[in-house]
């Protein structure tokens, strides 16, 4: 293994899901729903397979039907904010958001370029920045226990920008903290990007999981359309994490750049699933609000249950994750806590420390996923209450 990758080891998701399988514990670690997405979308995939749609290499940028559906989705949900999207030049279908992140960084970074990422950050960010030869510069989201939220210190963000900064890698709604950046924070990020001539790669895979207020794509802020690469994922929006279909939307030159990298990573992405997801993206608004309301109730169930079990809870404004502080339970090392939790309580969770460069900052925090059946969450809460 080369030096660029050696520090990353095995992802925490593989480690913790293997632990869940080995112990039979309830897996609230890796974020995947335990209920598959809509039946009509699954049927559409079967139909595509059977009818021979997409069984051979689809076009590299994605099938026209899906690119059109992504563009229509952007206009349906964000058109009132002025967002438009040309399906031929401004959309690229990828193998999950994971490939979109990798291809964007590989396409846009020169060796030695600095990338600012909000810490804690999704684990593939650090590895992909390294694979692209970039240098990550973390800006730490600060926990605010009084309000049960995390805050971005805009002064820290400003101070982190240097002459070597090429781009900001943003994620809102934010995994693992559940933070949704406010209009004011996004306005300031946009201002800094314009002023310092930076690109922004914004991972908005949880765009439909915003419990308070509405999702605001960074690309809709003044002057950002031409310098923003926006990433979405069918895994999150339609509960098909195993299908690995995502997308990039951006100005034509940026999409062309990301496509240049994608063509040598995977060339193209799973064909029949693309046909099915073109239909999924056209589902009525009720599908999207139904998903949100279902997860809102689950967020409340798990947050309240964790609080009753003695955890300090950071109530998520978005995503399907809740971050907790384990210090009220008498623990300080989240990784050790998570390794022992299946034996002690029959539950698997993720230690936030693995998403930090400054591991000490993340040490006492542990993430639980709530994209699970109500009875599963209830059982997990009952088990965790016995910990105290
Ligand atoms: N970004 C974030 C913030 C995520 O949480 C995830 C999924 N865990 C991804 C990207 C990857 O998405 P996909 O499964 O579509 O590759
Ligand atoms: N995105 C999911 C999470 O944060 C799973 C990612 C993965 O398995 N690589 O839990």
Automatic annotation (TrEMBL):
Transmembrane segments: none annotated. Its EC number is 2.6.1.-. Its cofactor is pyridoxal 5'-phosphate. Residues 25-384 form the Aminotransferase class I/classII large domain. Gene3D superfamilies: Aspartate Aminotransferase, domain 1 (3.90.1150.10), Type I PLP-dependent aspartate aminotransferase-like (Major domain) (3.40.640.10). Keywords: Aminotransferase, Pyridoxal phosphate, Transferase. GO terms for molecular function: transaminase activity. InterPro entries: Aminotransferase_I/II_large (IPR004839), Kynurenine-oxoglutarate_AT (IPR051326), PyrdxlP-dep_Trfase (IPR015424), PyrdxlP-dep_Trfase_major (IPR015421), PyrdxlP-dep_Trfase_small (IPR015422). The keyword Protease does not apply. PANTHER family: FI04487P. This is Pyridoxal phosphate-dependent aminotransferase. It comes from Streptomyces catenulae.
């Amino acid at each position: 293994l080369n030096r660029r990758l050696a520090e990353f080891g095995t992802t925490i998701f593989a480690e913790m899901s293997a632990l869940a399988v080995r112990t039979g514990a309830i897996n609230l670690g890796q974020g995947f729903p335990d209920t598959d997405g809509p039946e009509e979308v699954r049927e559409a995939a079967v139909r595509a397979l059977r009818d021979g749609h997409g069984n051979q290499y689809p076009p590299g940028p994605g099938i026209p039907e899906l690119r059109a559906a992504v563009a229509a989705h952007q206009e349906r949900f964000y058109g009132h904010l002025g967002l438009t999207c040309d399906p031929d030049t401004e959309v690229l279908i990828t193998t999950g958001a994971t490939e979109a992140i990798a291809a964007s960084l590989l396409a846009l970074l020169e060796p030695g370029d600095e990338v600012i990422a909000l810490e804690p950050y999704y684990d593939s960010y650090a590895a992909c920045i390294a694979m692209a030869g970039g240098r990550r510069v973390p800006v730490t989201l600060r926990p605010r226990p009084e309000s049960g939220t995390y805050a971005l210190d805009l002064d820290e963000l400003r101070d982190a920008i240097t002459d070597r900064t090429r781009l900001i890698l943003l994620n809102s709604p934010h995994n693992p903290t559940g933070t949704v950046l406010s209009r004011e924070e996004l306005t300031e990020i946009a201002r800094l990007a314009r002023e310092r001539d930076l690109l922004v790669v914004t991972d908005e895979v949880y765009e439909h999981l915003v419990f308070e207020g509405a999702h605001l794509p960074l690309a809709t802020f003044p002057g950002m359309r031409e310098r923003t690469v926006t990433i979405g994922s069918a895994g999150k929006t339609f509960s098909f994490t195993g299908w690995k279909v995502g997308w990039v939307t951006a100005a034509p030159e940026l999409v062309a750049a990301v496509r240049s990298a994608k063509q040598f990573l995977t060339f193209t992405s799973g064909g029949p699933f693309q046909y099915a997801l073109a239909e999924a993206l056209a589902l009525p608004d009720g599908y999207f609000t139904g998903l949100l309301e279902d997860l809102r109730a689950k967020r409340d169930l798990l947050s309240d249950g964790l609080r009753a079990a003695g955890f300090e809870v950071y109530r998520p404004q978005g995503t399907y994750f809740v971050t907790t502080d384990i210090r009220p339970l008498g623990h300080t090392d989240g990784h050790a806590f998570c390794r022992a939790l299946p034996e002690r309580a029959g539950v698997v969770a993720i230690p936030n420390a693995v998403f930090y460069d400054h591991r000490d900052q993340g040490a006492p925090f542990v993430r639980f996923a709530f994209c699970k059946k109500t009875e599963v969450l209830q059982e997990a809460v009952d088990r965790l209450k016995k910990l105290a």
